[in-house]
């Protein structure tokens, strides 16, 4: 996936209405919102306008001097055409029913409400933005403030040699950002990615550092590890908190010495590797739970990039959705569009699975769609993460006391930068209580179970 910054392409609108006063006012309104606007007063004029080039949005009055909007719709290739809004001064069940199933963005009753018109233009503009883009950085699609800051951060850190720690919920695009760091760096070696939680702990050392022949059962030949494979390049350590603590000690030594020793070997091999690590946990909480060594954290976190969850990215949801649809269209040779109700549903959903969930939902909906419109089935509401920001916690009815205690302890530790003595003072308990509770949490994490009071 590419990191996309919006191009300066100006969206266009064609207004087809025999009421010259209304058409002129609507065109002025669209121009004020950044659109190129053209006007047609009949079907014949609209056909000539369409022959000159498709508009990104066509607003069609249902009744025209030489026919109806449906006469024009019947002539158009619905799959290849722009978004269409039907307008009428006298709504009828018959005309509304005919609009169902057509690539119609909305069915509007005049006089138009300015807010409704603005929403119509915004939806059309979003679709244009998803299609007309320029690639600036490998990474994620978006134009919200957080993503713009991400672009600025990458400009600053990528050309350097410092280690980078990327934090963010699962599905926010951490590996894409890691690749962006590598591709914008001056390093000419390979980008090598490894998920520390996807490899058995007893094999991870061999994968990372390599092994010599005969070093263990099954080691029939020398194996070059990920560090050597990434020499003069970048090694991406995803889910770093899943690495066993004993192996974290050796990793720290490799980072400090710039040398690896293969499992079963005695020779030190020099490596020039830039490390980009990632975690979906709060690093301070992971340190408190004993999942991440504090000294390794400071070695990895020369520069921290925090990726926002999709629910915090505003209109990027629709921008991403339309970009995914365009990509699926290119893959399948189609020209489908999101149905209006689908766009509204996508904008309201909290996306606990972030971009990964959005992509999955759209792909399934696309493959199940038969006509030109992609409709989204009802999306389930999953529980949202409890952590809202550094200084607040959200509890919900039905939470156990154990869960409440856990959230309060971890958020307090995060707020005092892991200082257990200060956390004990703030919570009004002993330091021993803090250590005992962290020990219970650590065991629960290891067992994959919820902690019990």
UniProtKB/TrEMBL annotation:
Regions annotated as coiled coil: none
Keywords: ATP-binding, DNA-binding, Nucleotide-binding, Phosphoprotein, Transcription, Transcription regulation
Residues with 4-aspartylphosphate modification: 61
An annotated Gene Ontology molecular function: ATP binding
Every Sigma-54 factor interaction domain range: 140-367
Matches recorded under PROSITE patterns: RESPONSE_REGULATORY, SIGMA54_INTERACT_1, SIGMA54_INTERACT_4
Response regulatory domain mapped to chain residues: 12-125
One Pfam family in the UniProt entry: AAA_lid_14
Domain of life: Bacteria
Presence of keyword Cytoplasm: no
InterPro entries named in the record: AAA+_ATPase, AAA_lid_NorR, CheY-like_superfamily, Homeodomain-like_sf, HTH_Fis, P-loop_NTPase, Sig_transdc_resp-reg_receiver, Sigma_54_int
GO process annotations (BP): phosphorelay signal transduction system; regulation of DNA-templated transcription
PANTHER family documented for this protein: PTS-DEPENDENT DIHYDROXYACETONE KINASE OPERON REGULATORY PROTEIN-RELATED, TRANSCRIPTIONAL REGULATORY PROTEIN
Protein known as: Sigma-54-dependent Fis family transcriptional regulator
Species of the source: Cognatilysobacter lacus
Lineage: Bacteria, Pseudomonadati, Pseudomonadota, Gammaproteobacteria, Lysobacterales
């Amino acid at each position: 996936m590419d990191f996309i910054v919006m191009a300066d392409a100006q969206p266009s609108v064609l207004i087809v209405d025999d009421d010259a006063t209304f058409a002129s006012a609507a065109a002025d309104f669209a121009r004020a919102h950044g659109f190129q606007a053209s006007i047609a007063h009949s079907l014949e004029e609209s056909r000539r306008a369409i022959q000159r080039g498709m508009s990104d949005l066509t607003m069609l009055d249902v009744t025209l001097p030489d026919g109806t909007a449906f006469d024009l719709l019947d002539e158009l290739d619905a799959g290849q055409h722009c978004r269409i809004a039907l307008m009428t001064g006298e709504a009828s069940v018959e005309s509304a029913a005919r609009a169902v199933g057509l690539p119609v963005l909305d069915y509007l009753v005049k006089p138009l409400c300015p807010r409704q018109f603005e929403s119509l233009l915004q939806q059309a503009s979003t679709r244009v933005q998803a299609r007309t883009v320029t690639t600036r950085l490998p990474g994620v699609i978006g134009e919200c403030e957080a993503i713009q800051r991400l672009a600025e951060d990458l400009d600053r850190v990528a050309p350097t040699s410092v280690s980078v720690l990327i934090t963010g919920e699962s599905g926010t695009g951490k590996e894409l950002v890691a690749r962006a760091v590598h591709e914008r760096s001056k390093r000419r070696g390979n980008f090598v990615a490894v998920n520390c939680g996807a490899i058995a702990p007893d094999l991870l050392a061999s994968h990372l550092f390599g092994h010599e022949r005969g070093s263990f059962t099954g080691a029939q030949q020398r194996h070059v590890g990920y560090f050597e494979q990434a020499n003069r390049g970048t090694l991406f350590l995803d889910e770093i908190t899943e690495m066993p603590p004993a192996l974290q000690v050796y990793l720290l030594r490799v980072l400090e010495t710039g040398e690896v020793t293969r499992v079963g070997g005695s020779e030190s091999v020099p490596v020039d590797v830039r490390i980009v690590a990632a975690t979906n946990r709060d690093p301070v909480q992971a340190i408190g739970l004993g999942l991440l060594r504090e000294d390794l954290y400071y070695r990895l976190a020369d520069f921290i990039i925090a990726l926002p969850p999709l629910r915090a990215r505003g209109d990027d949801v629709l921008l991403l959705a339309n970009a995914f649809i365009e990509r699926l269209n290119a893959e399948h040779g189609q020209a489908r569009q999101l149905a209006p109700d689908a766009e509204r549903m996508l904008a309201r959903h909290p996306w606990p699975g972030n971009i990964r969930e959005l992509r999955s939902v759209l792909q399934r909906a696309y493959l199940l769609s038969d006509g030109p419109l992609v409709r989204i089935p009802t999306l389930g509401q999953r529980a949202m993460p409890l952590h809202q920001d550094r200084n607040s916690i959200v509890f919900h009815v039905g939470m156990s006391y154990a869960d409440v205690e856990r959230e309060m302890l971890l958020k307090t530790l995060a707020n005092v930068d892991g200082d257990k003595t200060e956390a004990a003072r703030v919570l009004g308990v002993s330091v021993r209580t803090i250590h005992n509770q962290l020990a219970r949490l650590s065991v629960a994490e290891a067992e994959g179970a919820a902690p019990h009071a």
